[in-house]
Amino acid sequence: MKHTKVKDLLISTTTLQEVNAKGWVRTFRNNQFIALNDGSTINNIQCVVDFENTAEETLKRITTGAAVSVIGTLVESKGAGQKYEIQVQKLEILGDSDAEKFPMQPKKHSLEFLRENAHLRVRTNAFGAIMRVRSVLSFAVHKYFQEKGFVYVNTPIITGSDAEGAGEMFKVTALPFDNTPRTEDGKVNYKEDFFGKETNLTVSGQLEGETFAMALGQIYTFGPTFRAENSNTSRHLAEFWMIEPEVAFNDLDDNMDLAEDFIQYVIKYALDNCVDDLKFLEGRLLEEEKSKPQADRSEMPLLEKLNFVLENNFKRVSYTEAIDILRESTPNKKKKFNYIINEWGADLQSEHERYLVEKHFKCPVILFDYPANIKAFYMRLNEDGKTVRAMDILFPGIGEIVGGSEREERYDVLIEKMKALEIDEEELSWYLDTRRFGSATHAGFGLGFERLVLFVTGMTNIRDVIPFPRTPGNAEF
Ligand code: 4AD
Ligand code: MG
Questions:
Q1: What's the gap in Å between 166 CA and the centre of ligand 2?
Q2: How far apart are CA 115 and CA 340, in angstroms?
């Protein structure tokens, strides 16, 4: 007999003579009531076991974590909390679970403990919800761009260029660590390596993406990205997923419009398609907030916060205006910031970004026109000669969620910049070809997918929104 998903059973419009459900036991009460979950929904289906006619041996094996198959009648439930339940006629234990040893006991576990059990934490309500929301969001990303006619491009994961300057890179090598081949001056001889040159895991697909945008018009990437920076924060992963659209003939304003529209679309899609999961996560968050001091509590419940982002335009502010605001701010004057803002040109730390978003503007903010020397080489230089057409989108509780820019399309200006930064022209000659042959205005951005999932689920640590997080000192599983 084919089994039916719990999700579909729960939305049934009639009682059903014979149904089969398969899943994992969450709890077993009074030797009679199984709360069965199969991952299709946050909700369990109640399965009522006929304990008088079930062998004692079998009843003992209905333990938290066990995999079971039940066949029975879908009837209207007499108990509160569910419309339908299954009156079990036939129960089969598919896989036993040692109740004493099963780490996911039906009680509240700390997030740290759950991280150490990332292979089992997905069997909890919270992680089931987070991972379903993550899946729906990633579908929404593709749906948005595909509906707009963007071409999905798979840029390489192993890359020969290290000029993006986005962060430290992980080396990819097949050379031995003992007797590593060396050149005459003692350096590692990458000519003898697998690719005949030094290679790394990519920190961004942008440069390759640009070459495709300059042929296909509108493209996006969505893939894994690697950064070996030693930042052990709740916002950084060594392996994360990034979405990078790149559009020919777009300028910075178009880029901001696209980013804002895109983010609002995917959040709306999650709201429309993950109601149960988001409601659960909202409740979880409210519980958690109760244990925090008043000042640290978020001002809005999760669903209200998500709707707020949909209903309000992102505030667009230049870097220069932002510096003025920060310089005059109370935490700056009272020296509460770890990094005091004195001068125009200072790089913004996450404490400053969060002040702007959470305390000053109280809405998502797009900062643009940053000083050239704190941004990447490929960003278009403004007429003032000192700022570039960069944009960062800052979100409450998250800080930077998007980084992007209009690109420097002028060959001469780009070469000047690369010379000043001692970036190897030879190495990037393929990139420079886009400026040699039919160059045009273009722009793009990168959205950190996990930071988006953090925002939508209301979680606070990025390790909790990716299945198996990779961070400094941790590559378990
Ligand atoms: O600002 P970033 O470094 O921009 C780029 O890589 C550009 N090439 C994007 C482009 O213009 N096509 O990274 C983009 C976003 C950040 O805003 C942040 O959301 C996320 O990627 N991000 C990280 N997320 C998790 N862990 C990390 N270590 C991250 N580093 C960046
Ligand atoms: Mg950035």
A1: 8
A2: 35
- pLDDT for 161 equals 79
* CA atoms of 37 and 25, how far apart (whole Å): 6
Ligand 1, atom 21: closest residue by C-alpha: 448
- Per the CB < 8 A criterion, the answer to whether 247 and 442 are in contact is yes
Q: Which domains are delineated in the chain?
A: 6-102 (2.40.50.140), 122-168+203-464 (3.30.930.10)
Atom of ligand 1 nearest to the CA of 462: 25
- Structure confidence at residue 346 (pLDDT): 95
Nearest CA to ligand 1 atom 7: 446
Residue with tokens 């339908």: 84
Q: Which residues of the chain have pLDDT under 50?
A: none
Residue 24 CA to ligand 2 center (angstroms) comes to 42
Of the listed ligands, the closest to the CA of 206 is 1
Residue 305: per-residue pLDDT: 95
Give me the phi and psi of 80, to 5 degrees please.
Answer: -80, 160
Which pLDDT does position 299 carry in this prediction?
73
Minimal CA–CA distance to 352: which of 324, 376, 375, 388?
A: 324
Q: Ligand 1 centre and the CA of 449: distance in Å?
A: 9
The pLDDT of residue 166: 62
